[in-house]
Amino acid sequence: MKLTIDIPTAIDDVLRQQYGPDFDRTAKVTLAIAWYQDEKLSIGQVAELLGITVYEAEGLLKMRKIAAPYSIEDLERDRATLDRLLQT
């Protein structure tokens, strides 16, 4: 699928000056990261979307100081598992 986004010319000019020839790639990375942060994509899907390995995707997120989603429910589940394992 191809996605087209209409950006006003003045904004496009500013962004292309800032990002140069990497503008399209930067936009794609930014969108992938936003979807990851919204928990719409997994790390594997981010990697696939960007055409990189999961290891590279994890590095990209770490470089931008973006932590993996970890909810209170995840914490409670992990604590319950740990409690169960320590009781045996």
Give structural notes.
This protein is mostly helical. It contains five helices and no strands. Helix 2 runs antiparallel to helix 3. The longest helix is centred in the middle third of the chain and has 15 residues. The radius of gyration is 18 Å and the shape is elongated. The N and C termini lie far apart (51 Å). The model has no long low-confidence stretch (mean pLDDT 92).
Proportion of strand residues: under 5%
Rg from Cα: 18 Å
Task: State the separation between the terminal residues, measured CA to CA.
Answer: 51 Å
State the share of residues found in helices, binned by percent.
55-70%
Task: Enumerate the spans where pLDDT stays under 50 for 5 or more consecutive residues.
Answer: none
Q: What sequence of helices (H) and strands (E) makes up the elements?
A: HHHHH
The main pleated sheet reads as: none
Count of distinct strands: 0
The backbone outline, from C-alpha atoms, is elongated
Task: Give the arrangement of secondary structure elements.
Blueprint: H1 9-19, H2 23-37, H3 43-50, H4 54-63, H5 72-86
Helix pairs in contact: 2-3, 3-4
